[in-house]
Structures are given as structure tokens and as C-alpha cells.
Amino acid sequence: MELHHEYKEKMAAQLKEWNAQISLLEAKLDGVAADMKILRMEEIRGLRARQHAAAAKMNELGKASGEAWEQIRVTADKLWDELKQGLSDVQSKFK
């Protein structure tokens, strides 16, 4: 059970950090040309959607145990990886 708690704490901290990074990208939109701004806004919306999916999966983890917990964790790890990669991709476009 301790492993479950540590995993959830780690993911909560990561989600918080990613939220701040996405918010920073949103703030940078002010300096982007109008046509690029629309494209970047869509990318950020996609990141927010992934972030919400990851948060929802984390809530599921909090309620699960045993075999169900392990299955949800595998899906959560995949969501985390997708969010991490997506954030990295969008961040690189703002440089």
C-alpha cells in the first residue's frame, strides 16, 4: 500500500508541475502572430485534455486496489508518457 501512496504522490507532483508549464505556454501566446496563435492554442488545448485525462486516471488509482490498481497504473503510465511527450513537443515550438 505504501508503494501506491508514493506513486500517487509522485504523479500528483508531476501533474502540478506540468500544469505550471502549460500555463506558461498559455502566457507566451501573447507574443505569437495571430495565425500561429490559433495553431498553438489548439496544441495547448490538446495538452489540457491529456492533463485532465491523467488527473482522472489518478483519481481512479486512489480508489483502486490489487489487480485493478495495477491495470489502472499501466494506463496511467501511458497517459503520463503521452502528456510528457506532448508538452515537450509544444514547448519546442515556442523556442
Describe the structure.
- The chain is mainly α.
- It has one domain (2-93).
- 89% of the residues lie in helices and 0% in strands.
- The chain is built from 3 helices and no strands.
- The longest helix has 30 residues, at 34-63.
- The N and C termini lie far apart (42 Å).
- The model has no long low-confidence stretch (mean pLDDT 91).
Helices and strands, with pairings:
Blueprint: H1 2-28, H2 34-63, H3 66-93
Helix pairs in contact: 1-2, 1-3, 2-3
Short characterization:
This protein has 95 residues and is mainly alpha-helical. The chain contains three helices and no strands.
Basic shape: elongated
User: In angstroms, what separates the terminal alpha carbons?
Assistant: 42 Å
**Helix/sheet category:** mainly alpha
Rg over alpha carbons: 15 Å
Overall strand count: 0
Give the uncertain stretches in residue-range form: none
- Helix content, binned percent: over 70%
What's the number of domains? Answer: 1
Quick one: biggest sheet? none
SSE pattern, N- to C-terminal: HHH
List keywords for this structure.
95 residues, mainly alpha, 3 helices, 89% helix, elongated
